[in-house]
Design brief:
It comes from Paenibacillus forsythiae. InterPro entries: AB_hydrolase_fold (IPR029058). It is a single chain. By secondary structure, the chain is α+β, with helices and mostly antiparallel strands. The chain contains 3 helices and 2 strands.
Length: 66
């Protein structure tokens, strides 16, 4: 099943927790052999509000890969 994981990079939790979070996001992307993991630099939890164009572009890319 196609899967795209879009990850925020700024949670305000400190570098150690940010690294743990990034690893968990990698684990999530690994659930599919047909996945893509994209970081959204300088965004917090609400990537869809802070970087909507990235979300739109990734949705278009996901459907193009089908």
């Amino acid at each position: 099943m196609p899967l795209t994981v879009i990850s925020a990079t700024e949670h305000g939790t400190g570098p150690e927790m940010e690294e743990i979070w990034a690893g968990l996001q990698d684990d999530l992307a690994a659930l599919s052999d047909y996945s893509r993991h994209v970081d959204s630099p300088a965004t917090g939890h609400y990537v869809h509000l802070e970087n909507p164009q990235l979300v739109i572009d990734e949705i278009v890319t996901l459907f193009a890969r089908l």
